[in-house]
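**Entry details**
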Amino acid sequence: MVKILSQENSVLNTFIAEMRDVKVQTDRMRFRRNLERVGEIFSYEISKTLNYTGVDVQTPLGVANTKLMTNEIVLGTILRAGLPFHQGFLNYFDKAENSFISAYRKYHKDETFDIKIEYISTANIENKTLIMIDPMLASGASMVYALQALLKYGVPEHIHIVGIFASKEGIEYINKNLAGVKYTIWTGVIDKELTVKSYIVPGIGDAGDLAYGNKF
């Protein structure tokens, strides 16, 4: 299942437009803040799909019954562009445990690349709700390799894969390579084109560089 949030009119589209805009992109603080705000919007939408149970809450004047979420959540993030996006989720799922994965593209002379996983710090994900966060779902390879590395530590009850900008190829790659895994893909928009270097067009460019500066 793929859920595309921009198909409904909301303030999300304003934040996405600002992240695309080459003039607004020069303000790194605003770019990071927009990633965070979009993370909050995705959190709210995902929360509607989770499990709840009724709980009595004692107020100064009586007892109020409300439904509270019962899912045990783990937020998984691919470094480094995912960090401000991750913070948006953590603002809402403030009791969540967290997993961090360092992944990068190792390019070859013919402009092809391999995905290398260098570091994992993970909470227990067994039978929990894993929300995997990365602003860009371009080729889909980074997300698949990160998930395959995490799944060696346990099997979640369900995985929510979240990217703000996705390509058709990236969605197809994830669907092809995560057979047998329970997951839902959430994205802001799906762009039609992917360059030979696996950059999304029109996309936004390199989210990590826009958030934290160009890398050597």
Summary: The chain has a mean pLDDT of 92.
